[in-house]
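TA notes, week 10

Several of you asked for a full example with nothing omitted. So below is the full record: structure tokens for the whole chain, then the designed sequence directly under it. When grading your own attempts, check the secondary structure regions first.
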């Protein structure tokens, strides 16, 4: 958490994902709300967790426009647990079918934000991280 008491957020998208408009909009919205945001394009879940450790983040937001979340989210959650980082809030956004939301939450994801999601709800959720 930053000295201003706001969570530090890592936003990520896979290098194979060509759509980045949504995640870049989220980065802007969170920065405007006073959060420090780090944005990376990653190749593996290990890179996400390594960056989360290096940047000492409170939140990881993963963006998907494909179904890659079914492979990447469980790996990220496992790696966070192995590193003792279960307190890092993981959020998922993008093109997520409604029928997959419960599965993602069972993996440990705290919130799922699809296209048109309420950004005030996102800001509120991120505000609770690191407390």
């Amino acid at each position: 958490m930053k000295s201003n008491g706001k969570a530090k957020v890592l936003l990520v998208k896979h290098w194979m994902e060509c759509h980045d408009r949504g995640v870049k909009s989220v980065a802007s919205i969170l920065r405007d709300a006073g959060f420090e945001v780090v944005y990376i394009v990653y190749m593996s879940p290990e890179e996400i967790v390594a960056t989360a450790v290096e940047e000492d983040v409170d939140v990881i937001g993963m963006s998907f426009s494909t179904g890659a979340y079914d492979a990447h989210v469980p790996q990220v959650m496992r790696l966070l647990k192995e590193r003792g980082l279960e307190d890092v809030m993981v959020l998922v956004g993008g093109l997520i079918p409604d029928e997959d939301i419960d599965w993602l939450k069972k993996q440990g994801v705290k919130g799922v934000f699809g296209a048109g999601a309420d950004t005030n709800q996102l800001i509120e959720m991120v505000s609770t991280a690191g407390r």
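The mean pLDDT is 91. Use that as a sanity check on your answer.
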